[in-house]
Amino acid sequence: EDFLTLIFKAMMKDALNSSHPVSSSVQSSEQIEEMFDALSYIKGASLLLMLKHYLTKDVFQAGIEVYLRNHSYGTAQSDDLWDSMNEITNGTLDVKKMMKTWIVNKGFPLVTIVRKGKIISVQQEKFLYRVEPENWTSDASYLWHIPLTYITNRCNFTHCTNAYLLDQKSGM
């Protein structure tokens, strides 16, 4: 419950146009300090939980183990974790490409799902809680690779989770 409260507080900050990406290039030590705020940590933790759920616990754990083994007693770059996950998924999913959309875009998407009979359509757009005119920038280019999981009435809740990766503005 406490973690959910933190997530919602971080989302409120991230829903403002004055938000910042989880990862960006820096030029000064002041910019480094600005990057490591509660938003970055809580959003980062949420993104890892999203990835763990999408990849499954075992695949995610194997990716973490590869990452730790490859970088023990050394340094790591921002893409090294995603490369380790790619190694485990054997190229079936480009984890780096998916996660880059979450860490370099500020904010988060609003996903709208519409069902018409048996046809389901989904679309995404950047969610903004409040537009701040002094910090406004166009959001037309924002696109996330959103892992969506769902079940159907032909499934029981424990063994029939389907996954769909929304990597366009809209899909079916």
Could you explain how this protein is built, in words?
Helices cover 42% and strands 16% of the residues. The chain contains six helices and five strands, in the order ααααααβββββ. It has helices at 2-14, 29-35, 38-55, 57-71, 80-89, 95-104, and strands spanning 109-116, 119-126, 146-150, 162-166, 170-171. Strands 1-2-5 form a three-stranded antiparallel beta sheet, with no helix packed on it. It has a two-stranded antiparallel ribbon with strand order 3-4. Strand 1 (109-116) and strand 2 (119-126) form a beta hairpin. It folds into two domains: 3-104, Neutral Protease Domain 2 (Neutral Protease, domain 2, Orthogonal Bundle), CATH 1.10.390; 108-171, Immunoglobulin-like. Helix 3 (38-55) crosses helix 4. With 172 residues, the chain is of the alpha+beta class.
Succession of helices and strands: HHHHHHEEEEE
Could you tell me the radius of gyration in angstroms?
A: 18 Å
Instruction: Report the total helices.
Output: 6
The major sheet is characterized as: 3 strands, antiparallel
Please indicate the count of domains: 2
Side by side, the strands of the main sheet go: 1-2-5
Kindly report the CATH topology of the largest domain.
Answer: Neutral Protease, domain 2
Strand content: 15-25%
Proportion of helical residues: 40-55%
- Specify the CATH homologous superfamily of the largest domain: Neutral Protease Domain 2
Q: What is the averaged pLDDT score?
A: 86
pLDDT < 50 runs, ≥5 residues: none
Helix-strand category? alpha+beta
- What's the architecture of the largest domain, going by CATH? Orthogonal Bundle
Output the CATH class name of the largest domain.
Mainly Alpha
**Overall spatial form:** globular
Protein name: LCAP aminopeptidase
Domain Peptidase M1 membrane alanine aminopeptidase: 7-102
GO molecular function, one term: metalloaminopeptidase activity
Pfam family, one: Peptidase_M1
